[in-house]
Amino acid sequence: MPDFRPILHVNGVLIALLGGGMLVPVVVDLVAGHEDWEIFGVAAVITMTLGAMLAFANRGSGEQLRVRQAFLLTVAAWVLLPAVAALPFTFSELRLSYTDAYFEAMSGLSTTGSTVIVGLDDAPPGILIWRAMLQWMGGIGIVVMAVAILPMLQVGGMQLFRMESSDTSEKILPRAAQISGAITGLYVALTAMCALLLSAVGLPLFDAVAHAMTTIATGGFSTKDGSVGHFDSWQADAIITLFMVLGSMPFVLYLQALRGRPIMLWRDEQARHFLMVILVIILLGSLWLVQFKNFDLGSALRYGSFNMISVMTGTGYATTDYGLWGSFSLTLFFLLMFIGGCAGSTSCGIKIFRFQVLFKSMNSWVRRSVQPHGVFVPRYNGRPISADVQASVLTFLIFFMLVFFALAFTLSLLGLDWITAMSGAGTALSNVGPGLGEIIGPSGNFSTLPMGAKWVLSFGMLLGRLELFTVLVLFSPSFWSR
After folding, report:
1. What is the pLDDT of residue 162?
2. pTM (two decimals)
3. Which are the contacts of 337, defined by CB distance < 8 A and separation ≥ 6?
4. Which of 141, 269, 297, 427 could form a disulfide with 435 if both were Cys (CB 3.0 to 4.6 A apart)?
């Protein structure tokens, strides 16, 4: 059996840090004169105490973290953190059941954006900022995990992005600390820039900060029931659209640009093709709205680009009920939710690089079939794509679809109609947020779903956020054998 002490130690530190974060809503509720500050205060004390006990009881054991422990640590963190983050939701004025509270916390930390809370317009300010903070903290955690942890674990082709000196398991924690320091500074700067711009175009400071945090995290939690559409501001729409795209680009490329290599943002195949896909989708979607839905060109560009980018990047904001645009729009948005952004970003979904590896591999296989004696090596960013990366990506895509259908089938067994079941499974596994249909569409939420469906969707969010195999490998008997 693996040594659990390093896992408990790191999780204790993370839980204690999360408890410290609860002090921010304490201050917000105190300033607003809301009595829920006491709830957050008690929850903060409980959480920090629990985290400190785990950390100190297992200190001195976190330097020898190995591959199997890294799998366990990653999954344990994303299961335990929502468990304690749910406490304020349960005991606050909202009085959510623990099922609803865990669903909301998992949706926040996984940056999914699905919600069970009704009446956000009148919700306590501490709760609103806590939701935004969960997504903001989850976003930076996802970036660090994608850059420092998943490449070493060789999950779903992520070994393609393995960085120098990150291939030894003993260096996981030091390497993660080095990367997270630089990326966190950039993450904070982008969040502050977004908040300042939103405030400058008329959003109240509280709403500007909350939406900046959930935009750069591509999370989608809003402070309003009407999401971003509540503000009815084309300037705010444009700013949020820009930062959704920025949050879906590889953060490592931003660091390279800051070090004097801005051309890397365009030379990188993943980033370049991601921007090209966005441009094509915006043009085609906007033209369709003009031609078949009688939108003028300005409105088509505004509403089409915002909502399509929101779904594709997994942010989940909405400025209108695009479910009313007809069957074509439902099909388009359903497909967009699976694409996602770039690896090494806060975005979700299958990721652009996997489609690139798949198409390059298919092209190589086709050419080899036509010319059996030819040598055709698929390349990514000028480097050959190894056979294990191709196999990992193909396996990931197959498992992604199998898990999607399994989740959808399970949800249908729990009584959900097929649109809700299919889109619910897709939005959970792709960490998008709103689904399709009258119940969980952009104008609805997940509060009316049965308890079992919420736990299934929470598990789906976990699977999607941790790239499937990080979780599924724990169910393999060989993982636990010597």
Report:
1. 66
2. 0.92
3. 311, 312, 314, 349, 423, 426, 427, 430, 432
4. 427
